[in-house]
Amino acid sequence: MSIPVAFRIALDTWASWVEKMIDTNRTHVFFRTYEPSHWSEQSHRLCNMSNIPISEAGGKDRSVFSDTILEAVKNLTVPITVLHITSMSALRSDAHVGKWNGNPSIPDCSHWCLPGVPDMWNEILLSYLLSLS
Questions:
Q1: Over the stretch 68-78, which tens digit does the pLDDT of each residue have?
Q2: What are the boundaries of each domain within the chain?
Q3: Least CB-packed of 14, 68, 71, 81 within 10 Å?
Q4: Cα 2 to chain center, whole Å?
Q5: Which superkingdom is the protein from (predicted)?
């Protein structure tokens, strides 16, 4: 089974649980899409490769996993707020989670190289939370 297929099965299981268990009078569900990978090849796995936003996303503004999330929540009766950060993060080469790439010696770029990317994700979430109150 491919990873995208397994991910979709997991999301469908999660969506079924949300439909059965979430009380919308008490709970609001948020789901963040995935940050894009900016690695071009093994030898270029460095975060200090740029200090300004990328001008072209080069296809990194799309993700099979983010598209799967959007598809999975589309027909739910429970409202899901999707924090779709994939396109926004595609323009920042530090907008990836390096710590989880299988080599712990490579830093988690989205938290250590430059401030901004996760901070912006948090600002988006905060704006949604404030609009609910």
A1: 999 999 999 99
A2: 3-132
A3: 71
A4: 20
A5: Eukaryota
Distance from C-alpha of 133 to C-alpha of 131, rounded to nearest angstrom: 6
Residues 6+ apart with CB under 8 A from 88: 120
Residue 25 has, within 13 A of its CA and on its CB side, a CA count of 0
pTM above 0.90, yes or no: no
Mean pLDDT, the chain, whole residue set: 78
Q: What is the helix (H) or strand (E) element at residue 86, kind and residue range?
A: helix 86-89
3-state helix, strand, coil in the chain (%, to 5): 45, 5, 50
Instruction: State the Cα angle at 125 between 38 and 22, rounded to 5°.
Output: 110
The answer to whether residues 124 and 30 touch, using CB atoms and an 8 Å cutoff, is no
